[in-house]
Structure formats: C-alpha cells, structure tokens
Amino acid sequence: MSSPAVVCCDLDGVLWRGDEAIPGSAAAVAALRAEGVRVGFLTNNSSRTVATIVEQLDSMGVPAAADDVLTSAQAAARLLAEQTPAGARVMACAGPGVVEALTSQGFEVVGEPPVDAIVVGWHRDFDFDRLDRASAAVRGGARFVATNVDPTYPGRDHLLPGAGAIVAAIATAAGMGPEVAGKPEAPTVALVRERLGRFGVMVGDRPSTDGALADALGWPFALVLSGVAGSPGEERVPDPPPPFVAPDLGALAPKLVDAFAVRQ
Known about the structure:
The chain is of the alpha/beta class. The protein has helices at 25-34, 50-59, 72-83, 96-104, 128-139, 163-174, 186-196, 207-217, 249-263; strands at 6-9, 16-17, 20-21, 38-43, 69-71, 89-93, 108-110, 117-120, 143-146, 152-154, 159-161, 179-180, 201-204, 221-224, 244-246.
C-alpha cells in the first residue's frame, strides 16, 4: 500500500448491528489511530443525522468529528444539486439524515407533490401512503434519486429489509428506476476522495457494495464477516477473496496495522 494511512470504515455490520456495538470494534479503531491511521466512517444508511451517528460512535468509545462521517444522504443531496437548483421542492421519502443533507444544499424539503425531485432512503415508517405519494411524484416528472439500493440492512438480531426494498416498491409503482448515489456509485466515490484523499483501504461487510466501492476507488478491500457477508443466505466471500478477510474489525485491525507498517 502506498501513500497516507487511511481507512474508510463502513458502520452497520462492521462497528455495530442495530444499537449494539460489535465486540472489539472500538478497540480496533483506537489501535488504528494509535498507529497514525486516519479512520473515516462511511454508511449507506441514510436515515440518521450526522450528529446522531457521531453520538452513537462516542457512546461506544469511538470519538469522531462530523467531518469523519460520510453518508449516502450526503452523496444523494450532492448528486441532486448538480442539476437541480437550490430552492427546488424536494420530497424526502426517507429519514432525518436525508432531510438534513437536502437542507444543507438549499432545497425546500416537502412531504407531497408537486415536487421537482424525490430522494428515497431507508426509514422504518414507509407505508402505502408514502408509496402512493412517492410513485405519483415520479410519474409526474420528479427526478428520482435513491440513496442506495442495498436489499438488506444488518439489524441487531437479523437482517432487515434495506433501502433497496423501498426503492424497488416505488420504482415498480412508478414504472421508472432511480439514479443511485450511495456505495458503490460515482457520487460516493467523489465524496470519499474529497474527504479522505485518493489512497486508503475500504473496510466493509458487503462485497457487492463495499467491495465494489473499493474497486471504484482503486483501494484494497478488507472484508469483515460480522454483518451481511457473515449472515446465512447472504453474500459469500468472493473467489478469489479480497486482500484482507477477518471475522470482525477487532481481528482485522492488526492485519491492517502490519500492512501499513510494511508500506512505511
């Protein structure tokens, strides 16, 4: 590995599952930082605000600043801002994290048509009424942006339906697919490069997104088996495997420290 020591770390399934920290994850981040490695946190889960994510990290013993946190909500808002003017009416069929990101880009966040665009992300209160309003907005010509299309989401005890399930329902009802902003798409690649630099290691639990993002960045991929890839019936370890594979972040950190030491 060359250049600055940077680790971009997924959250759900890597540092925690639901509201429970994965054992050893906080110590792993501390060990990486002790070796001078910068650790950034990147999540496809758009539902939470940055402050909420920082608070959860802090509660498990991982101090973090807002600038350390990158989300698919931020990537979606930036994607929308490229062609949609500030002040446009945007429906958030999503959680508070998307509302925060859209507001930061100067959009007027509304709950129903008429709208210029709609951003769809993971949230627990999606229902038929939201499906009706969202699909009607898309059929009416609103720009359709998805934070991500992950089919599942690592809950505390089992995998939950992910943002992709919500997006698929809206796309089916509207007869049109979305632009996608989160991992491993170009808006997230740009966000990572801007915040964390051009070189690093991507740590994640889902080869189809985290691994694909690593490929898009040109970074090594470090796979942990504490989330999606470690759940029955979900994604398998790729063949050939990525450069780093470990049961969890605690077991992975020493491998990364050794690799960075060789680089130096």
